[in-house]
Recover the amino acids of this structure.
């Protein structure tokens, strides 16, 4: 018999082979959930699964499924796969990209705009759509859907990434509306808004350029970037019944970044 804050719940996580998705998969498994980890990269998924099994030897059901969230048929297959487990209880729509060629209004290529919206927005819509269909089909009266947005959906960033910023604003808006529309069915929808994290991508890019690093760290009241696991802990809360009255929220996990008044000195 599973124990933990998510005991017996069936969870699907997209982008589960990446930073936030993998840390969340580990914590969900530790908290007693059955977890279907999905990602566009089958190879990365296998490595991620091995890590979960190594770190959580007593985990319940943990499986992987390749899924490109921008393709509706694949998202449907992913959500429907847990019907055999008793049906979906938790969906973490977390997969997202920020393309290197994403830029300002003048320089963002249209193909990059479309690619970003297809994954970051349409992927979240497809996930929510098939979650609602699954929850109704399986006669669920409570469920939690968490969609990953970003602090750039809440405040302006001076480094241009217009397609990404637009996509995350859309995630906030669609999540909020779904939260209202489905509240009386017991389905909760919340957005997670992470601040920039201490991921290999960012750290490799910053390298040992201290000035570049300082320019960013100064915006954090605590003087540091966030860690993926700090996002994962928040997702466990939003997914659990402890958050039963938390709905339609823009849940910022940002070390206070969005509340900071920053001065040069
Ligand atoms: P990550 O790149 O480590 O993980 C993202 C995962 O999504 C990868 O495993 C990738 O293979 C997968 N993916 C990409 N395209 C996909 C697709 N079409 N279908 C399915 N999977 C796909 O990044 P992360 O930092 O863990 O980011 C997770 C989420 O958090 C993203 O939505 C991102 O925009 C958001 N976010 C990240 C930060 C940050 O600083 N890392 C800050 C704010 C928001």
């Amino acid at each position: 018999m599973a124990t933990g804050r998510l005991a017996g719940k069936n969870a699907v996580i997209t982008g589960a082979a990446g930073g936030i998705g993998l840390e969340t998969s580990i914590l969900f498994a530790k908290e007693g959930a059955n977890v279907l980890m999905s990602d566009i990269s089958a190879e990365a998924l296998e490595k991620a699964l091995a890590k979960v099994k190594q770190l959580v030897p007593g985990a319940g059901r943990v499986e992987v499924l390749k899924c490109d969230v921008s393709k509706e048929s694949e998202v449907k297959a992913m959500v429907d796969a847990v019907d055999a487990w008793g049906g979906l209880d938790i969906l973490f729509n977390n997969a997202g990209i920020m393309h290197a060629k994403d830029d300002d209004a003048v320089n963002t290529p249209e193909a990059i705009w479309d690619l970003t919206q297809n994954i970051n927005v349409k992927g979240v819509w497809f996930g929510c759509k098939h979650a609602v269909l699954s929850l109704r089909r399986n006669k669920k009266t409570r469920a939690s859907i968490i969609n990953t947005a970003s602090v750039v959906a809440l405040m302006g960033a001076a480094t241009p990434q217009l397609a990404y910023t637009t996509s995350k604003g859309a995630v906030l808006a669609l999540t909020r509306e779904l939260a209202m529309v489905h509240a009386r069915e017991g389905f909760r929808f919340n957005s997670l808004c992470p601040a920039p994290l201490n991921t290999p991508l960012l750290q490799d890019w910053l390298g040992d350029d201290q000035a570049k690093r300082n320019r960013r760290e100064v915006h954090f009241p605590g003087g540091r970037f966030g860690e993926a696991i700090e996002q994962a802990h928040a997702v466990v809360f939003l997914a659990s019944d402890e958050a039963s009255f938390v709905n339609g929220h823009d849940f910022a996990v940002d070390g206070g970044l969005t509340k900071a008044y920053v001065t040069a000195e």
Summary: Residues 110-137 form the longest helix (28 residues). The radius of gyration is 18 Å. The chain is about 40% helix and 15% strand.
